[in-house]
């Protein structure tokens, strides 16, 4: 039996037939999550937000804090992905550990978060490109370019897993090279500030502590989407090992490379006060221009723009696979159409275009970029936290004792608990003003979700996923 056949047999034991084309290797799994985290997207697009709210101390200190608090969640999700490798991922885990209602809630929260993050990535990219090209027309021009960028990602995701596989690998190497280029050029040519400049604290908020906390959105939004490795497990070879490693490594590598990037760029700032007076989207390009001059700064910004395009592509890949799995289990209006797989390309083509359309509608509705990023962050972390919390509760009751080859061993409960507590903090923090629009949208979605469940899906939503024996002895090697 080939490796792909063995993986298909394992998927069948979990309740599903192999329909998507399986061909992604371990590096492609890592590359997809790494590309969606995309430090050249999140850390760059929201650099102005972090800088204005917390100054250099907020940018650097916030990155370190969020990196450390993201790792427990990455470890927790990796352990779940190793045990149940299906495209449904998060909501399948919640269903097995807590029941269909929890699975349904997790699925909708993850869907909302992924649509919002796809919209915010491409909208931020459109703003950067409009700025670089000095395009006039304001928001209509940004929306027009946004629609073009989103369409390019949808077309490539429709064409097939091979194209996405190749571009994911290219994206990972592009991000590595891009970070090195920016760091090398700024570090070599710019007259850098003393290291003590990194401790400079200023804020647009009356109280610095609140500004620092609000500024964490820059790092926290960046560290989303690393569940992508779990969503493509039905297209991955040896997913029980490849997916967990992809999740964890993407966070670790992004944390280190992102810190290096932010430290060097921040030390290259020559006129801190001028940056505070600029629109958020212009702060990072202006910081590069101050460091190395307008022309070279523009070229470095173009390097970041390329990474943003790759990030949007990977985000739509993950988004569409999640929607496909949810539709396959009958959780969506129009599920029979959304779970169809293209016979020519082996991709969930209808889900691809549905996700792109939803991202476009969200961008048309929300004209505040920070609100889109905040909404995607709280919705995604809610969908991360639910299965982890249910898994923690199941472990305490002794209902979940059989793990996959990648596990946390005796540290599992403590790590899961830290992840859950941080999730609660994230959800509370990023609905505060000036992100109240995100809180209102999130609250409205929760009300709609509750009504839809009680009126249409309660007693009817029954995912096919089989958890196997939740008992028994843990398997594998801790942290493997």
Give a concise summary:
By secondary structure, this protein is mainly α.
Q: How much of the residues is beta strand, in percent? A: under 5%
N-to-C SSE string, H for helix and E for strand: HHHHHHHHHHHHHHHHHHEHHE
Domain count: the total is 1
Can you tell me the CATH class?
Answer: Mainly Alpha
Give the strand line-up of the largest sheet.
Answer: 1-2
CATH superfamily: Amino acid/polyamine transporter I
What does the oligomeric state look like here? single chain
Major beta sheet, specifics?
2 strands, parallel
Shape: globular
The helix-and-strand class reads mainly alpha
Give the C-alpha Rg.
Answer: 21 Å
Q: Within the CATH hierarchy, at the fold level, what is the topology?
A: Amino acid/polyamine transporter I
The name of the CATH architecture is Up-down Bundle
- Unreliable sequence segments: 469-480
Distance between the termini: 25 Å
Tally of helical runs: 20
Average pLDDT for all residues:
89
User: How many β-strand stretches?
Assistant: 2
Helix content estimate: over 70%
State the main characteristics:
72% helix, Amino acid/polyamine transporter I, mainly alpha, globular
Please explain how this structure is put together.
The protein is mostly helical and 480 residues long. It has one domain: Amino acid/polyamine transporter I (Up-down Bundle), CATH 1.20.1740.10. It is 72% helix and 1% strand. The protein contains 20 helices and 2 strands. It has helices at residues 3-13, 26-37, 42-45, 47-83, 90-98, 100-132, 138-159, 161-189, 208-215, 217-222, 228-231, 239-267, 272-276, 280-292, 294-328, 335-338, 349-365, 369-396, 412-429, 436-457, and strands at residues 406-407, 477-478. It has a two-stranded parallel sheet. The longest helix has 37 residues, at 47-83. The chain is globular, with a radius of gyration of 21 Å. The model is unreliable at 469-480 (pLDDT under 50).
